[in-house]
Each structure stands twice: as structure tokens, then as C-alpha cells.
Amino acid sequence: MRYHRAYKAKSLPQTRGDGCLIGSRSDIVETLTELADAVIDGVLMSWVDPIGGLKEFSREVMPLLEKKGLRAPISARTAA
User: Fold this and answer.
1) For the chain, what are the domain ranges?
2) Which of 16, 17, 18, 43 is closest to 29 using CA atoms?
3) How far is the C-alpha of 11 from the C-alpha of 13, rounded, in Å?
4) Distances from the Cα of 46 to the Cαs of 50, 68, 79, in angstroms?
5) Sign (positive/negative) of CA torsion 4, 9, 12, 18?
6) What is the DSSP letter of 19?
7) CA 43, CA 39: separation in Å to the nearest integer?
8) What are this entry's molecular-function GO terms (predicted)?
9) What's the pTM?
């Protein structure tokens, strides 16, 4: 809970103040980058449509996170 409160206090522009990430895929990547820069190394995500949301996140956001160096490419993660 302490991390959540510190995160809320920062008032990142892509959040509603309750920790929800909202916006375009680049907005989400920017927010996750800001969280990583703040040394937050993990987030819990859920979607109204879990399967569809996870597929869309994997297809649209993960490649951008890989380009920023925040995630290893899937081939590197599965090879280990």
C-alpha cells in the first residue's frame, strides 16, 4: 500500500488518481516508463475483457516496451 500511495501522490497525467492506466498505447508505455524510472518494478493489470485485453496489450504495447528496453523480446525470455 505504501507504494500505491506514493504513486498516487505523484499524479501521473495518464492516471485517474487511483492507479488506473488510461490512454493510447504510447500513453501506457510512457506511464510504465515513469513507473520504472521511479524504481517500481512491477504492476498488476486487469481488463474488463481479460483475454482480449491481454492479447491487445501483448500485440500493441509489449513491442513498444521492448523497443524502450523495459522488456526483453519474447524469444529471449522463452530461451532462458
Assistant:
1) 25-68
2) 43
3) 6
4) 6, 23, 27
5) positive
6) S
7) 11
8) oxidoreductase activity, acting on paired donors, with incorporation or reduction of molecular oxygen
9) 0.66
